[in-house]
Amino acid sequence: MKNLKKGLLITAICVLVLVFGSISAIYAASSSQTVQAYLGVKILYNGNELTGASQPYIINDTTYVPLRYLMDNFGDKSIYWDPTGYRVLISDKTNDSVTSLQEQIRQKDAEITALKNQIASLNTKIDELENGDDASLSDIEDDLADYFEDAGDDYFNDNGIEVSVSLSGDEDELSYTVKLDFDDADDYTDLTDVDQDDIESFMEDVTSEIEDAVEDTDYESADIIGKVKDNGHSSYYAEYEDGDYTYSWDDDEDETSVSEIEDTLDSYFDDVGDKYFNDEDIVTTISLSGNENDLSYTIRLDFSSANDYDDLTEVDDSDLEELMEDVESKIEDEIDGTNFDGATITGLLRDNDDSSLNVEYYDGSFDYSW
Q1: Cα separation of 71 and 106, whole Å?
Q2: What's the pTM?
Q3: What are the structural domains of the chain?
Q4: pLDDT at residue 19 greater than cutoff 50
């Protein structure tokens, strides 16, 4: 009996080799093969017919018996079909072995999936390199900010100079603006104190870094122009275009715009709530209007999120007057040497939620609505 089982197992293995050898041959062949197959073969064991629904076949004078049929009847084995590797896996019939084989197949499937994903990622990168990278201006701007973070020390030997970089434009022209803040500088009062050779060396490097960043991108052929500004004095700036540098303080009169002065005021007085009223949650906005003869500023204080105040009437008069005087003084500094030099300056301070609460300032006098 044991010899019979062993013989049948050897036969089954031969059948397996024949079956999968035939499959391989069929897959490898470039044309189909005609075969003759006959049904009706019966298998008897000790006089008992074992033939079931999956009948054996005679194909080209060779009898083919389903492998699972043999294993189920003559061997205590488990059979598992691996569709990925086109393999028939035979093992001792235990739950652990079946689970182990299935786990191995799942792991292989996972490895194949991971490799396919890597191939797809590499193909995407190849396409980007071949077709050009749609680089983001914000990404380039971030890289510039990181690269020139220590520009104060690197170019002007003063690590107290703070540097900020912005970039805008399109595929035809890119424009960068670098703001230098001299509030904490050790050796400079403003941009006009800086040697122009150092400014030009700095701007050349900024231009060069942008050119490197946009290489092989949609912005590769864009013209690059630039501007370095004094963050505290909008009338002081250096411009770069087509290899030429111009300086605002070299002109007899600077054509500063009202909006530029307004931007400087907003930046300079960004912490009014904390600095003047000891309440950092008071939100401040400053607007400026007028012409070369008259300039008028408006300060709006928003108390909706304030910790210590409900409205403008609760703020100490001396604190309000100090703020308005400082705003006027800053405007005077900004328009010095510009087309607004000599303009009369008036001011208005308002409660953002109640326009009836306001303070007017003119020629050193304050008028309170309440």
Answers
A1: 24
A2: 0.39
A3: 2-75 (no CATH), 137-250 (3.30.70), 258-368 (3.30.70)
A4: no
